[in-house]
Amino acid sequence: MTQPTAIRRAPDRRPRALTTALTLAQVGIPVLPLRAGKVPFGNCPDCTGGACGGRPNMKTAGRCRCPRACHGWAAAATDPTVITSPAWAPMWRTAAAIAYHPAGAGLTVVDLDDAPAVAWARTTLPPTRIVATTRGEHWIYLGTMRSVNAVRAGVDIKSTMAYARWLGPGTGTMASLPDAVRALAVKKSGPARPTHTAGTMPALAGGGECRHLTPVYLERGIAMAEQRITEARTAVHATVYRTFLAVLSVHGRCGCLTDIHIGRLFTAAQAKGESARHCTDAWANARTALGM
């Protein structure tokens, strides 16, 4: 009796970094390749070798004038057609590491750079998912916030508008982003603005009282805006602009919007393929339309 012939699968000749990146993208983690020195590649001639200063595609980003996200956190993608595109292929062949945009995956990374920083975290922060690094650890929490470097000795916060190296899944159960971590960013950037009480609510520029008597109202508005952008199937650019317009029309005149809220909206838009430049332009156009 003839034995069935075993089916031979063609070997996967893709670079290992690309294979890992595609696996991460499948679970919603926006990825990008890093060259030696943990630095993003430049996707245009002006940005090759970090000539533009290594900053994402923003209006103030040095020489970079790319029509779409060029490099850094702004270029992180989950779309396999982007990740496997001819433009990215040379980068994957020489990539020294993989990075990801934490906020794009709904995460915040507390980057502990040395042993004293790790010791501080173990006595101060709630346990969460931990990934070992060369000199310290990454503590990963569920939730996003503004990225801030050097919030204390050996401690950086990486979330919105930042990238972190992918060093493996880590160990432990991921916890929600604690107030202790958010407070670090407030201390670094200076005292927070005073919280208004019901008796001292400022009037809106267009008249009427600010309705943000509690943080819940604002949080619900931002969450609904994120959902509207995320669920867009067509006309994404127009949806992003209309959503920004709606958020600003309700929350833009009383000073309650912070960099964290704006970063969440930009992150949602970029996850749908919008570039950082398009987000910035849409936000500016919405402000202009409202006379802000």
By oligomeric state, this entry counts as single chain
Helical proportion? Answer: 25-40%
Largest pleated sheet: 6 strands, mixed
Which class of secondary structure composition applies to the elements? Answer: alpha+beta
Q: What order do the helices and strands follow?
A: HEEHHEEHEEEEEEHHHHH
**Strand portion:** 5-15%
Helical element count?
9
Would you write up a description of this structure?
- It is a single chain.
- The protein has 292 residues and is an alpha+beta fold.
- The chain has 9 helices and 10 strands.
- The chain has helices at 16-26, 80-83, 89-94, 115-124, 179-189, 215-230, 236-251, 259-271, 276-289; strands spanning 31-35, 39-40, 97-100, 107-112, 129-132, 137-142, 148-152, 155-158, 164-165, 175-176.
- Strands 4, 5, 6, 7, 8 and 10 form a 6-stranded mixed β-sheet that branches. It has a 4-stranded antiparallel β-sheet with strand order 2-1-3-9.
- Helix 6 (215-230) packs antiparallel against helix 7 (236-251), helix 6 (215-230) packs parallel to helix 8 (259-271) and helix 7 packs across helix 9 (276-289).
- The longest helix has 16 residues, at 215-230.
- The protein is globular.
Helix/strand layout:
Layout: H1 16-26, E1 31-35, E2 39-40, H2 80-83, H3 89-94, E3 97-100, E4 107-112, H4 115-124, E5 129-132, E6 137-142, E7 148-152, E8 155-158, E9 164-165, E10 175-176, H5 179-189, H6 215-230, H7 236-251, H8 259-271, H9 276-289
Parallel strand pairs: 6-10
Antiparallel strand pairs: 1-2, 1-3, 3-9, 4-6, 4-8, 5-6, 7-8
